[in-house]
Amino acid sequence: MIKFLVLPVFAYLLGSIPWGIVLTRLFTSVDIRSEGSGNIGATNVGRIAGPTLGVLTLIGDMLKGAIPVWIAVVLTTPNSLWGEIYISLVSLAAFSGHLYPVYMRFKKGGKGVATAAGCFAVISPMAFVVVTLVFIMFVCWLNIVAVASLAAAAVLPVAVWQATGSGVLTGCAVVTAIAIYFRHMDNIKRLFEGTEPVIWK
What angle (nearest 5°) sits at the alpha carbon of residue 107, between those of residues 101 and 109? Predict the structure, then answer.
């Protein structure tokens, strides 16, 4: 029983690791929180510190979602009600760590897209593929990461439901998508103002 209680805490602590800050401090003199959009995620890191650190941040942020969820899958029976509840709890714990990292006093967290992607890559690989394709399509079409992220988040619950038929996992996806929209409120405001930055100029 203890191991089932420990994993959500581990997931939250792992999710709290701000890879954008760690990597930029290790390899540059930049404080990513005071540059660009001020966000610690892969997009801002890539813009400010270069594509290599941006990709490494993306991988780190995805893994901190994927690793604890994978452990949860191993520890439970994934298709059971208890298994789905537990996997969802661990996923939301890792995701919450990224949004509200304990190491940063619960402030200045990321927007959650990469960590959510890592979680759902394990929860439902098919849904992950669908959502990733939607993200890529919108990036290629509009050249704005925020729009692609919001489109992918909107599709996530539908993709999870179609792939799994699970109300619990779909509920987890709904909560995740709502949180992603909430964290993108500044981006949404800039989109209406026409000031949201593009990827390639």
Answer: 55
